[in-house]
Amino acid sequence: MSTTVTIGPLYRADAERCAELERLLFPGDAPWSAQAFRDAVSSGQVYLAARADGELVGYGGLAVIAGPPQAEAEVHTIGVDPVWQRRGIGRALLGKLLEVADELRATVFLEVRTDNEPARTLYERHGFEIVGLRRRYYRPSGADAHTMRRAASHGG
């Protein structure tokens, strides 16, 4: 498959597709609803879409929670359609989100399931390190999460 995947803004109109992917990707962990995506996109947070031939195949979101001089941001979500996984889409989405954080020189935090080794490896390759454990963080499954942190970039 030689389809080109593009990264751009996520729109309110994408909310139903995002919710559909959430149900596929996170069935035991209270997947986000379409309304949650509409609210997030409308809030001014940074939400991106990965599209292949116009179809939404992935999404990611970053919230800036504190501005300079000690900026902080949180990766709220990244999801890629299972059919499109292992093609660098999650890496591309994360990279674009981190570009936004780097412009602010923000320290970035996220939570990831302790049993999600592919995601944890992706984050580690982007400079994140485990700084904590949140027991029974994900509901209703009760899965634990690692809190991960990436130091602020001073390259701008």
Description:
The protein has 156 residues and is of the alpha+beta class. The chain has helices spanning 15-25, 34-42, 89-103, 117-125, and strands at 5-9, 46-52, 55-66, 72-80, 107-113, 129-134, 145-150. α1 crosses α2. The longest helix has 15 residues, at 89-103. The chain starts with a strand and ends in a 6-residue tail after the last strand.
End-to-end CA span: 35 Å
- The total strand number stands at 7
Q: Any idea what the radius of gyration is?
A: 15 Å
Give the H and E element order: EHHEEEHEHEE
Shape call: globular
Helix count, DSSP H or I runs of 4 or more residues? 4
Strand order of the largest sheet: 1-2-3-4-5-7-6
Structural class: alpha+beta
Overall mean pLDDT: 92
Beta-strand content estimate: 25-35%
Helix fraction?
Answer: 25-40%
* Biggest pleated sheet: 7 strands, mixed
Low-confidence region ranges: none
Keywords for this entry:
156 residues, 7 strands, 28% helix, 33% strand
What is the compact description of this entry?
This protein has four helices and seven strands, in the order E-H-H-E-E-E-H-E-H-E-E.
Topology:
Elements lengths: L4 E5 L5 H11 L8 H9 L3 E7 L2 E12 L5 E9 L8 H15 L3 E7 L3 H9 L3 E6 L10 E6 L6
Parallel strand pairs: 4-5
Antiparallel strand pairs: 1-2, 2-3, 3-4, 5-7, 6-7
Helix pairs in contact: 1-2
